[in-house]
UniProtKB/TrEMBL annotation:
Keyword hit for Transcription regulation: yes
Organism: Rhodococcus wratislaviensis NBRC 100605
Cited SMART domains: HTH_LACI
Keyword Repressor: yes
SUPFAM superfamilies attached to this UniProt entry: lambda repressor-like DNA-binding domains (SSF47413), Periplasmic binding protein-like I (SSF53822)
Protein name in UniProt: Putative LacI family transcriptional regulator
Keywords linked to the UniProt accession: DNA-binding, Repressor, Transcription, Transcription regulation
Taxon lineage: Bacteria, Bacillati, Actinomycetota, Actinomycetes, Mycobacteriales
Amino acid sequence: MEANGSAQRMREKSRVVTLREVAEAAGVSTSTVSRVLDDRVPPSRSATAERVRAVADQLGYRRNTFASSLRRGQTATIGVLVPRLSDTVMALMFEAISRAATRLGYFTVVATTGDDPTDEGEAARTLLARNVDGLIIASSLREDPLPRELREQGVPHALVLRTDGISPSSIGDDEAGGYLATRHLIDLGHTDIAVLSGPLFTSTATGRLAGARRALQEAGITVNPDRLIETTFGIESGEEAGRRLFNSSTPPTAVFAANDNLALGVIAAAHQRSLSVGGDIALVGYNDIPLAHLLPVPLTSVRTPFDQIAATALDLMLEPALVDNPIRRALPTLIPRRSSGTHRTPVGSPH
């Protein structure tokens, strides 16, 4: 009898406690439990984290990602689609996704797609054929068919940086960012401001342009259509648009470039015309890539919180049933530097 009781206790002790059991007992999502119990990152001291750890100890939970993945019939692998890794922003986004996935015990595989929906769909099918557990997509266009197909097929997925307005999406608040950038230039005294929007087939470009328009309209500044230039997100496109603006008989005094690569192109165009950035021309970029603060004239930029966006995207992909709002927006931050110059006294104003 005593031997039978001992065997029963051993079986109970050896039973594997799952993340979901801990999550249900603690009243949080499984992804929250996974982050809290990951000993590869500094422990959180929040009340929620303390409760999760206490519940896990009480239930006898022991982390075993590989075994857990096998029991779920999953591979603990996430596919990531980006337009190109030569784009600094997309490389930063992928690295942030990879860091967030590692904390949750997942491995990431990346595929590049350009801006071609056909190539994007083929890359998605290839990754799914390799049994990834879901897809994180940074290549989505506004009218992209892939998210709709994934929804119809019940494939776990989330969009990052860009959104189609329906699928689970973790993005920056692009309208707020465009507003901050343009409002900063207005507050410095500029009224003749050009906006390089990026490609308007992306939600990022349309959002940033909408924010810029709102700031101009609030300030009572008439929006000159010639000052709103649709571009790609590449350096060459920024240089081309900059030459077009600076070769004009009445060049603008300020430029908001909807990403930092565009801003680098504008700097090149200004140099070709012997115009000083931060002096003759005020310039604001977007995303605050690592190079921005290292330039000879450090670039004012709107910082995108890539790590926050990545972590939210994984939550949306892994726990879609627990998400009330499928589109999450992270607030950007304006980082003022020398490229936007100092306060400018408008022509005709008293000194």
